[in-house]
Amino acid sequence: CDANFILVKVPELLTMWFEESEANVRDVFDKARQAAPCVLFFDGLDSIAKSRGGSARDGGDAADRIYN
């Protein structure tokens, strides 16, 4: 496969300022578009993601906006 690989460490994306976290996520996808075709691997996503059928652990609506 000739795709680029981008490792994203999810805890490094999140900051205490929501707007900054959103900007970090946007930057990841901007870089992915520039490196297309590529595979994004989100390491640590399980630490903030909802479990199937569950609710967000601590992030609530803010976390929903980041990963939705």
From TrEMBL:
Keyword ATP-binding applies: yes
Source organism (scientific name): Rotaria sordida
Database matches in InterPro entries: AAA_ATPase_domain, ATPase_AAA_core, P-loop_NTPase
Highest taxon listed in the record's lineage: Eukaryota
ATPase AAA-type core domain residues: 2-60
Keyword terms of this UniProt record: ATP-binding, Nucleotide-binding
Any one Gene Ontology cellular component term annotated for this protein: VCP-NPL4-UFD1 AAA ATPase complex
GO molecular function, one term: polyubiquitin modification-dependent protein binding
GO biological-process terms attached to the record: autophagosome maturation; mitotic spindle disassembly; retrograde protein transport, ER to cytosol
Gene3D superfamilies linked: P-loop containing nucleotide triphosphate hydrolases (3.40.50.300)
UniProt protein name: ATPase AAA-type core domain-containing protein
